[in-house]
Amino acid sequence: MNSLLKEKWEGAKGHLKNLLARCRKVVICLDGWSKKGLSSHYLGISACFFDPSAGDVKHIVLQLAVIRHPHTGEKLAAALNDCLTDWGLGADKILMIVSDNGSNMIKAIKLLKEMNEDEIDECSHCSDDDEEEQTETEMADENEDLMELPREVRYLRMPCMAHTLQLVIKKAYVQHYDHVLTKARRLVKLLRKSSDATQKLLTKCGKILITDNSTRWNSTYYMINRLLDVKLCANEVLADMKIDSLTVAEWSKLEEMKNLLQPFATHTDILQTDALSLSYVIPSVLDLECHLQQFNDARSLTNAMRGDLRQRFAPLLEPVSHNFNPLPAAACLLDPNVGTLLLAPHMRPLLDAAKLFITAQVCLYCLEVQFLLNVCRKLI
User: Fold this and answer.
1) Over the stretch 201-247, which tens digit does the pLDDT of each residue have?
2) Where a domain ends, among 143, 159, 175?
3) What domain range includes position 25?
4) What's the distance, CA 69 to chain centroid?
5) Is residue 147 in some structural domain?
6) What angle do CA 220, 222, 223 make, to 5 degrees?
7) Cα separation of 324 and 322, whole Å?
């Protein structure tokens, strides 16, 4: 059995390596996970890429690495580097790395980038030593045939969009709706603990209540949405159990919270899909900003959320930002479904940045092709 499993594993891994070798660019995704009770911790590493032979997008898990406590950026960087080396993924093939906003994740990608830059500098130093040994004639001949490729930005990091949106939503949970949310959670837990109450809800409306979970995005929205959906039946069951329900004002507050969070839930579902979501990043952020601006209730809260939203996504919306990432703007421009968004007059700086990035990538690809042609010509 072990021999068969090993054979299957090696065959599957070889197949995936061939797929990765055929694709031009790969997006690496990172996420940490801890076992219940914190007895063990893992780093999940996956890859998303376009498979030209199948004509569709693939999303595969590369490794689930065990990470010993403490989970420092150095340990994460070492695990990631070992995984990429094992799968033969060089820095030139990685389009970007997506991770959450944890300080250890940010540091890990920064360290990986520094490691790669050190390797490039060492190679450049070796090349300089070799060139000194060549004759001037040999150097002239080689320069005529080979073109020096421009250096790309290595290991460009992009924050997980869905996770970042949840950080913006936390302001609503903590600053404005904490009291009513605590009471709603208590009622939901009481009703779910009672098998009699659960059966009564199923009999009356065919639904049961949902609990939220801090590690499940949108779960709080789904909890209050379901509670509001079965409000009348839930009140009847609570009355039979002689338990006080929410007041009219508290039910109204829950309704307000649901309306505030509904667009965030929709865009989170869009942005956490495996593929075809990068072009919707900027439209989603702008749509949420417009929603917060037009939301008439809880103005102080929505103004604070707007400011937080703009600050967190400044690297994607403002080309003057020191860590500006042009990829989402370029993806948006190339998508005919949303590309016209960047044609608005106030979006001109973002449009120019997207055009510049696309032009640079096309030129770089042409140089790579020319470089390969020149190498083949020398070999022939």
Assistant:
1) 999 999 999 998 877 888 899 999 999 999 999 999 999 989 999 99
2) 159
3) 2-159
4) 24
5) yes
6) 65
7) 6
Question: For residue 348, is it within any domain?
Answer: no
Alpha-carbon distance 307 to 312, whole Å? 9
Token pair listed for 369 = 């092709």
Strands 56-66 and 26-34, bridge-based pairing: unpaired
- Report d(CA 190, CA 197) in Å as an integer: 9
| Tens-digit pLDDT profile for residues 116-166 | 766 655 555 554 555 444 444 443 343 333 333 334 557 888 888 888 898
- pTM for the structure as a whole: 0.79
Hunting for tokens 């007059």 — which residue is that? 345
**Neighbour count for residue 284 (Cβ, 10 Å):** 22
* Cα 205 to Cα 207: distance, rounded to the nearest angstrom: 6
pLDDT digits (tens, 9 = 90+) for 212-223: 887 788 889 999
Handedness of CA 40, 102, 169, 44 (dihedral sign): negative
**319 within some domain:** no
Q: Residue 93 carries which DSSP code?
A: G
pLDDT tens profile 63-96? 998 888 888 889 999 999 999 999 999 888 898 8
Coil, helix or strand for 251? Answer: helix
CA distance 53 to 56: 8
Distance CA 183, CA 179 (A): 7
Burial class (CB in 10 A: 0-12, 13-18, 19+), 60: middle
Q: Is 310 left (phi over 0), alpha (psi -120 to 50) or beta?
A: alpha
Does any domain span residue 19? yes
3-state SS, one letter per residue, for 301-350: HHHHHHHHHHHHCHHHHCCCCCCCCCHHHHHHHHCCCCHHHHHCHHHHHH
150 or 97, higher pLDDT: 97
Q: Residue 63 in contact with residue 28, Cβ under 8 Å?
A: no
pLDDT of residue 293: 93
Same domain? 144 vs 243 = no
In angstroms, rounded to a whole number, what is the distance separating the alpha carbons of residues 70 and 103?
13
